[in-house]
Each structure stands twice: as structure tokens, then as C-alpha cells.
Design brief:
single chain, about 220 residues, alpha/beta, Rossmann fold, 7 strands, globular
Length: about 220
């Protein structure tokens, strides 16, 4: 199975390792300049690297079976989503459809949720709105409700949601490789979407999509 990965950082590198461990043909990677994990690992394995921000229908490799986002902030447009034979999957650190958006862990703490989790989902034209491939819950320690919310969210990501994401992604890749395609519609009765808590996040294609109606 031929795959393409758009991602960055340690999580992106771990997803690449999972793909290589499954014997997949990783035909390319999209990662930021200066990335210290995914980009060097791809180069070490002779995998072509595309700079983050440059991924589109013209630059995405053809003849691929699956696209994977792994801590990617590149928006995958419609034409790019249509290139892989099987579509794209990604990981979101929440129990979708709850806390769609970039700051999902921070909002789970801000709203004092008793639990959060991780979701592998199939990308569509909405932000974090695609069918669920698999999902798993973790409890939130109430001690994380107080103090610096970004520091606490980073700790939850590092200690729980990152390793969970690697496990879930590895399982999804294995299933898809073996012809098993899990697709469960998100129950929009329980959906929430919150804005990014990163003040530098000025360009918001997600808000444009909401105004246009969102999903496929």
C-alpha cells in the first residue's frame, strides 16, 4: 500500500515509523522546514519531502492509496483529498464530535470535561467532521482544571494523547492495509467547535467552511 504523510514533530515521526513497520510504501512526506523529527526521519529513509504549505493537487504524488495527516496544520483541499484511492485519515485529540478545532485539549479543560480521548477519522470538507475510524477515551485528572491551561494541555498531550494517537493510528493503518474500513458517522447532536487559543492563528479556513455549511 502506497501512502503519503502530511505532518510534523514527534507524532508525525512516530506515524511514519508505524507505516514503515507495517511495510507500507511511503512515497512522500510534507513537513515544515526546520522540523526536527518527521523531516529528518523521512530523509534518512530516502523519502521525498515537500515543504509545509506547499501541499496541493499539483504537488501531491499520484498513484497513492492513502493519505495520512499526523499533527499537520496544512488544509487538505477537495482536489487533494480526491487523489488517494482510499482517501485520507487523521488523528484528532478529542472524542469527536466534541471539541472540533485546534485547541481541543485546552477546551476540554476549560469546560471541565471529565474525559477526553483520541479519534482517527476520515477527512472530508469539514473541519474534524469526517466519519470515525476508531476512538478511545481517557479520564482527565481534575488537578488539570487549575493552573496554566496550555501547560496542562501540553502535559496531557505528551503523557496520554500522543501515545494514544500513535496506537490508534497504527491500528487504523493495519486495518486499512488488510481491507478493513471502519466508518461511523459522527453524531452531530453532541458536536462542539471552539476557536483556537493561539492568538497567532489569524487565517482561519475553518471559519470560512462553517459559514459555507461545513461537511460534505
Amino acid at each position: 500500500m502506497r501512502v503519503f504523510i502530511s505532518g510534523q514533530k514527534y507524532f508525525g515521526a512516530q506515524v511514519l515509523r508505524a507505516c514503515l513497520a507495517e511495510g507500507l510504501d511511503v512515497v512522500g512526506v510534507c513537513a515544515p522546514l526546520g522540523d526536527k523529527y518527521l523531516r529528518p526521519l523521512a530523509e534518512l529513509n530516502g523519502i521525498p519531502v515537500l515543504n509545509a504549505g506547499a501541499l496541493n493537487k499539483d504537488t501531491c504524488p499520484r498513484n497513492i492509496d492513502l493519505g495520512i495527516t499526523a499533527h499537520s496544520f496544512d488544509y487538505i483541499g477537495h482536489a487533494t483529498r480526491m487523489i488517494p484511492r482510499l482517501g485520507w485519515i487523521g488523528y484528532h485529540p478529542s472524542l469527536l464530535p466534541r471539541h472540533r478545532g485546534r485547541s481541543s485539549i485546552e477546551w476540554a479543560l476549560k469546560m471541565r470535561d471529565f474525559a477526553t480521548g483520541g479519534t482517527i477519522f476520515w477527512l472530508n470538507s469539514g473541519i474534524d467532521r469526517g466519519d470515525i475510524e476508531r476512538q478511545e477515551m481517557i479520564w482527565i485528572d481534575p488537578a488539570h482544571y487549575s493552573g496554566d491551561i496550555k501547560r496542562n494541555a501540553a502535559e496531557i498531550w505528551r503523557e496520554a494523547l500522543l501515545p494514544l494517537g500513535v496506537k490508534l493510528m497504527a491500528g487504523a493503518i493495519r486495518d486499512i492495509k488488510n481491507g478493513v474500513f471502519n466508518r461511523v458517522k459522527q453524531d452531530n447532536r453532541f458536536s462542539t467547535f471552539e476557536p483556537s487559543m493561539d492568538v497567532k492563528d489569524i487565517y482561519r479556513p475553518d471559519l470560512l467552511l462553517i459559514g459555507a455549511g461545513g461537511g460534505d
